[in-house]
Amino acid sequence: RQKLKIGLIPADGIGQEVIPAARAAIEALGSEIPKPEFVDLAAGFELFSASGEALPEETVQALKDCDCALFGAVSSPVNKVAGYSSPIVALRKRLDLYANVRPVISVAANPEDKPDIDLVVVRENTECLYVKQETMSIGEHGKEARATRLITERASHRIGKMAFEIALGRPRKQVTVIHKSNVLSVTDGLFRDTVRAVPRVVGDGRYDSVKIEEQIVDSAVYRLFREPQIYDVMVAPNLYGDIISDAAAALVGSLGLVPSVNAGDNFVMGEPVHGSAPDIAGRGIANPLASIRSAALMLRHLGYAAAADKMDKAVDQVIREGQVLTPDLGGKSKTTEVLDAVLKRL
Ligand code: NAD
Ligand code: MN
């Protein structure tokens, strides 16, 4: 690549404050990455309120011309608003970003020490109950609501393969497949068996060094809280993955710290795990570290490990020193001051 074309979609609330910080951190990198070129793109609930469109077609088309993207956060109204549906859910579908990858890593007191918590949740992003096929009927005893839960071999294989690939790049090289096939033997059985079969189906011994384990989802959450150290890469169907990754974020403190990427075979989009935080939006105190880490994760996914390491180290150092932190971490600093502290260490 001669240059790296990065789409920026700050969207709503604090997305407008933290995505510019992530951009500044990328701009501060040197020769670790090709020259970045940023493309500002619109989406979100605020845009919908003004124009009637939450995800303009131009945004989707422009993204197809980018190498990668960063997404801020959207506000989704609690009560259904006619004509509105979440642009992030739509984008995951339109760009076939089938994996949501969320590393949850604590910062050790000494840079030489291993972090106490260091795991990655790999969540299937396209099916399970999120196909949103719900029906209501009237039965003998009143209303009956039903939902379709779709699990396909194709989606289970590709998310399993993503988990194995991520495990290969980590020291412990362990994949834990999360399921409930003791009860849901058909759907979760297919998920578990397909993930377990990935090394054999891929062949060539590529994953010989990866250890595969499995856990029933409820006990997996229990053990996640009791002994998070037992996990390395956790791979799960959409709903379990959603719940487990939010729960895991609680283990490391603030939502303002946890990054993610939405990844497909041809595109990757970084996105902080947090939402638009209307309670603090516009005050300049949003924590930009989750977004900066999401930018690092996006670059790592594209193969720019040195750039990602450099950004992650700078963020860890700011957290470890504890002098310049936003209020969510008990500090008094502004978004821009935390960003400056990161830039100084880059
Ligand atoms: P939220 O993540 O926006 O906020 C939860 C709490 O964490 C708030 O007190 C907020 O101030 C704090 N917080 C979050 N990010 C922070 C940061 N970077 N720095 C400092 N504090 C931070 O969740 P919510 O309040 O439940 O939802 C608000 C809106 O965001 C809703 O409309 C919701 O639908 C949406 N949302 C969007 C996404 C997404 O875009 N993927 C995810 C979750 C929620
Ligand atoms: Mn969630």
TrEMBL record:
Residues 5-342 form the Isopropylmalate dehydrogenase-like domain. Pfam families: Iso_dh (PF00180). One of its GO terms (biological process) is isocitrate metabolic process. Its cofactor is Mg(2+). GO terms for cellular component: mitochondrion. GO terms for molecular function: homoisocitrate dehydrogenase activity; isocitrate dehydrogenase (NAD+) activity; magnesium ion binding; NAD binding. This is Homoisocitrate dehydrogenase. It comes from Rhodofomes roseus.
